[in-house]
Structure formats: structure tokens, C-alpha cells
């Protein structure tokens, strides 16, 4: 099976900069693959296709053969964590989940940690590079800020400001 | 304003201690009043004196002398290098003080067993600092899980990736001071236990606290260090099973780089990545420590002239909703149990040591 992820521009740019020594020597990698259940592949394709393809990206960036692989998978579901060690002691972490609620979009990230820098397309904050928490359930995708422990306030910015105005003495 | 308890600071080697001192120095309603500080390192003592310069605080180079000189104190905060925690616990218990331990009580299982045994009949509060219980987004995660909103938990993912504090707290990079003894991360390795994993007990607590599930199996890997000069590990990734075979992932590393300068500055635009993702069969929740980001580019900022992710403050409606506040409430008798107990702290240590053993032995370790 052809590994289409080798054509992923993010990966290609990270590989190029890694090989140029932009950030020094590579030490560790983290891969995120998250999809809603409606987009899930078959169990075999998930494990022997998607995970293997991601492993190939890690092996390519590590520039070295795989030495160890450990997988923790939810039985019967496309949801796993994996750790891979390469001969040169680079470690890659994998978070792969195709069981998210259908209101969630796909997210694919790489974070590469080097001796003198980082390369990543991972958001700077939050799940979507936006303020607040994410709750996805059968009612949809909700984004909100939980603003205080007691009484708990979970809402949008305007709701939170109004609640605080009601509950707290002026700053 | 609630009555402040009187506290002694035994050691300031833990990187969190200056933060508590700043809290007391800046906030007249801080839950405790620092009566005295003991520190035998002149540089660390100088730093603390600077923070507490306008406060009436006594200073000692010998923590035992400090304990003897202040029978009026309610409590002691143990903030030394981890290696000395056990001895400080013992002396504090002999004086019947309430005890607040900064991060791990001890990494030594035998010492941990003794502390647990003594604490079972100890009439005072012992609280172990395990962070993030009072961060509303993680509290909300607990509510969602415990109420069943997310359904049956399928997997839990938590990162707590910081910069290394070892440049500005060099003791933190000393494996013996940090871990208590010198143990290579794996046979023949030239770096040792006592780094990022020892520094980050709270992820192991947070997962238990949120889900109510215990750790049952642990498998860890440690990559080559990003910082070649470090004698302790700066990367660890851990996976395994919780109760019911629920898979978890924890990364408690120092894989966000910092500038190699004596005082803390930021380099990677976000100094800390603390990201929680819980997948249930009815829903999914993701929360970030930086859930109210404020982006800064400032000539006079701690890390000048570059984009840094800072945060807007969280409103505090109840003064007890902090680690210091909840401890003080316990000491005053207003709360029956500490927010995070000695048993909670030692439970985290047990999982952390299992992760170290897994890396050393290259196998999964059952708990």
C-alpha cells in the first residue's frame, strides 16, 4: 500500500528542516491522529495501514531503524497509544483515535523536539488553537471557558464576564 | 478575611517555593503568614530575602534550629531537595506541626511506607502538593467524568511538558538530590533518574482524581536527552492501563526548550503544555492549562521581542480554592481532609517508580 502521508506538506517541511539541521539533532517525536467515528477506517486498516504509515514517517525522520514498539489499544475500537524507540534512541509517541463524536473534525499533528528547537504544526493553545475547552457529545461540539471552581461557570466570554460581574466584588 | 496560619519554610530548593513566597509578599489576604525561612544555600536564600524584603520574616541556615525557635508556628512547608524530605517530615511530626510537602514526599518506597504508617495516627494535616485540582477546566473534566456525561471512559491522554528548571535551579539536575540516589535511566546510560518524571507527580494524581481509576500497568520509554549537559532525564513517555484495561498516555517531560540563562526566561512560545483529552463512549472532552491565552510580544517582557503565550488570570471566588488556601482551611479545622493527601502523593510516586523500572527493565510493570 502506498503511503500517502509521505506527501503531507507538513511532514515534508519538517523532514527538510530536520535534514538541514535547522533545530539541531532530533530527539523525540509526537504524532496525533484524531478523527470522528463517522470517518473511521476498518480495524485492520487503522492498525496495519494508518499506524504503520505514521510509523514510517517517524522512521524516516529518525533516520534509523525501529528497535521497539509498544501499543496500548482499546479492544475493538480504533483508539490507541503507541511508543516507538529507534536504534539511535529517538522515541516517537503516537496518539491515534478514530472514535471521536461525529461533531469533531480531523486533526493531524506532528511535534518534533530537537536539541536546539522544535518543529510542529500543533496548536499553540487548546485543541483548535482557540480559547477554552472542547466538549463534543451527541448534542454537538461545544467550546467554552470554565472560569471558576465555585460556583462553576462554563460559558462563552460574554457569559463569563456577566456572571463574574454578578458574583464578584469590583476588581 | 480569614485568619492566616503561621508557617515555616524548611528549604527553598523546590522551584515552586519562590512562587508561594511571592504570593505571601504580594497578597495581604494570602492563606498563610510566613514566620521564618530556613535555607543553607546563599544564592537561594538571597533570592527569597529579595522576594520577602518588606516582610517581617526570620531567616535561618539550619532548618532544625528554625523549627526549635518557632513553637508558635502552626505548620511547616517542606521545600528542600527531595532527598531531605523524609528527615524533615520526621522532625516536623515530632513537633506536631501541620505539614505541607512541595511535590513528592519521597521517591524512596521504604521511606514512603514509613511515612504512611506514621501518618495513620498523626493528628495533624499532611497535604502533598499535587497541582491542577483548582484549575476550573480540570475540575470540569472531573465533573463530566464522574457524572457519566462522557459515558464509559475509553482512553485518557495527559501531557505535562515543561521547560527544564535545571539551569536556574541546578540542584534539580542533581540525581541524588532529586531522586534520593543515583540510578541510571537504563543499564549503562550516562544520565539518571530524578529529572522530568520526578519533577511532575501531578499527572499521575490528576488522572486518578478525575477518573477515579487506578493505574494497573505501566510502560515507559525515555528518548535521548535534548540537553546533552543534563545528568537527569528530560524526556519520558508513558502508556499503560488503568482499571478495567482503560489505556492512558502521559508525557511528563522537559521537552519544551528554554534559554540557557541563570534566571528563568521563555523560549518555546508556550512554556508549559498541559493538555488533557478524555474519550468516553458518549463524548469527548479536551482541556488545556492555557485555556485563556494572552499573546505577548514586549520589549520589556521576561523573554523580550518574541511571541510568548501568557494567560489571563482566573477569577478566584473562594479563597480556599487554592492549594495554599485548602491547606490553611484544613489547619483551621474548616475542612476535614486535605485536597491531596500523603497517600495521594505516595500513590503518584508508586506509578512514577513503576515507569522508571519499566524504562530500566524494558518491560511493562504491573501495579
Descriptive notes:
The complex is a heterodimer of chains A (171) and B (367). Chain A is an alpha+beta fold and 171 residues long. Chain A has three helices and nine strands, in the order αβαββββββββα. Chain A starts with 8 loop residues before the first helix and ends with a helix. The relative contact order of chain B is 0.16. In chain B, helix 6 packs parallel to helix 9.
Q: Segments of chain A where pLDDT lies below 50 for 5+ residues?
A: none
What's the number of extended β-strand segments of chain A? Answer: 9
Proportion of helical residues of chain A = 25-40%
Number of distinct helices of chain A: 3
* Shape label of chain A: globular
Largest interface: A-B, 58 and 62 residues
Task: Output the radius of gyration of chain B.
Answer: 20 Å
How much of the residues of chain A is beta strand, in percent? 35-45%
Structural class of chain A: alpha+beta
Structural class of chain B: alpha/beta
Largest sheet of chain B: 7 strands, mixed
Q: Give the strand order, joined by hyphens, for the main sheet of chain A.
A: 2-3-4-1-5-6
**Unreliable runs of chain B, pLDDT <50, ≥5 residues?**
none
**Rg of chain A to the nearest angstrom?**
20 Å
Helix content of chain B: 25-40%
| Largest sheet properties of chain A | 6 strands, mixed
How far the N terminus sits from the C terminus of chain A, by CA atoms, comes to 61 Å
H and E order of chain A: HEHEEEEEEEEH
Shape of chain B: globular
